[in-house]
Amino acid sequence: MSRIIFFIMLYLLYRAIKSWYLSNFSTDPEKVSGKKEGSREDSADLMIQDPYCKIYFPRREGVHLKADGRDLYFCSEKCKNGYLSTLK
Ligand SMILES: [Zn+2]
């Protein structure tokens, strides 16, 4: 009988360690790098301007580019590539 209790304790310990591990190490790179204001998920529907063609579009539909530590969004891959060519 005590052996069953031992296994139950072991299982609960395993569950506790697993949940602790997940809460500490399962942070995705988006959350770690995006702690600045305005980069929260509720701003995903925000209208932002394409820095290349100056058009406005919802951020979540944009093409993401990380340049100089800044997050840039473009309306299309074409604009992203166009912007990149201006940097060179
Ligand atoms: Zn564009």
- Tell me the strand percentage band: 15-25%
Radius of gyration from CA coordinates: 22 Å
Name the average pLDDT: 84
Major β-sheet profile: 2 strands, antiparallel
Tell me the span between the first and last alpha carbons. 73 Å
SS-based structural class? alpha+beta
Question: What's the overall geometry?
Answer: rod-shaped
Helix content: 40-55%
SSE pattern, N- to C-terminal: HHEEEEH
Strand line-up of the largest beta sheet: 1-2
Give the bound compounds. zinc ion
Total domain modules:
2
Helix segment count? 3
Q: Which stretches of 5+ consecutive residues score pLDDT under 50?
A: none
β-strand number: 4
Describe the structure.
By secondary structure, the chain is α+β, with helices and mostly antiparallel strands. It folds into two domains: 1-33; 43-88, no CATH class. The protein has three helices and four strands. A two-stranded antiparallel sheet has the order 1-2. It has a two-stranded antiparallel sheet with strand order 3-4. The chain is rod-shaped, with a radius of gyration of 22 Å. The termini are far apart. The mean pLDDT is 84. The structure holds zinc ion. The site of zinc ion has 8 residues, from loops. Zinc ion (ZN) binds at residues 50, 52-53, 55, 74-76, 79.
